[in-house]
Amino acid sequence: MGSKARYASAIVAVLALYVASCVDPQEVADIKAKVDEVQAQQKDMIGKLAGLEAGQKKILAKGPAAAARPSKPKEDPNKIYPVKKGNSFWKGAANPTVTVVEFSDFQ
Amino acid sequence: MDQIVKEFPNDVQFVFKNYPLPFHKQAMPAAKAAVAAGNQGKFWEMHDKIFENYRGLNADFYAKAAGEIDGMDVEKFKADMDSPKTQALIVEEMKEAGAVGVRGTPTFFINGKKPQGRSFEQWKTIIAAEIKKKG
User: Fold this and answer.
1) Which parts of chain A have pLDDT scores under 50?
2) How far is B1 from chain A (nearest CA, A)?
3) Is residue A23 part of a domain?
4) 3-state secondary structure B66-113
């Protein structure tokens, strides 16, 4: 075998190896990048789900009423508020035993 | 409310305090109009006119409504609507509202207590009990 032929067969062998090992290196790299991306998204979603779950547990721990109406403080119906006639306009009895005060807007 | 005042003419005083909500564009001008009319002893006449027309309120409405009220000096009414004194009373009333935790309108107090329920019969019962307590 001449050196030329040996050289040629070596090139063929290298090419064969190259084709066999990585069909299209660019494609493989793309796929790998995609998989990495999906994995990262999945990790993000799992993290968010865990947060949601924790929040839900917290709400449920406060009882079913808290879950339905999260922020309505109970008001004491017998509490007496210091509302006075002041300079406001009024009608009815001048020396009342009962004063009804309305806070309102016109629209 | 007229019904309540008529039912207990010697016992019940009804006080109106303005609490114009900021997202109601005509709430503040309407409050000023009622106060300006009140300066001429015609608060309730204007109050009723505004409520009857609450859907059609606009800047031109108030002077027109004032002109329809017997004995109203419309020029004085217009001046009073823009006066700082009118504004001051409304601001004072809004501060009072804030001090007692008023958040929405209308909010009522009967001798300082928030009534449970809104019907005439419910109020009659509450008021009769208050009168009995004081008498």
Assistant:
1) 1
2) 9
3) yes
4) HHCCCCCCHHHHHHHHCCHHHHHHHHHHHHHHHHCCCCCCCEEEECCE
CB-based contact A101 B17, cutoff 8 Å = yes
What would the two tokens of residue B110 be?
């009967």
Do both B112 and B97 map to the same domain? no
Which structural domain range is residue A45 located in? 3-68
- In this structure, the strands spanning A98-104 and A89-92 are unpaired
Residue B120 sits at the chain A interface (C-beta within 8 Å) = no
pLDDT tens string B10-62: 999 999 999 999 888 999 999 999 999 999 999 999 999 999 998 889 999 99
- Inter-chain touch B114–A80, beta carbons under 8 Å: no
ipTM of the shown complex: 0.94
Distance in Å, alpha carbon of A68 to nearest chain B alpha carbon: 21
- CA-nearest residue of chain A to B133? A97
The pLDDT tens digits for B79-133 are: 999 999 999 999 999 999 999 999 889 999 999 999 988 899 999 999 999 999 9
For residue B2 the two structure tokens come to 């007229």
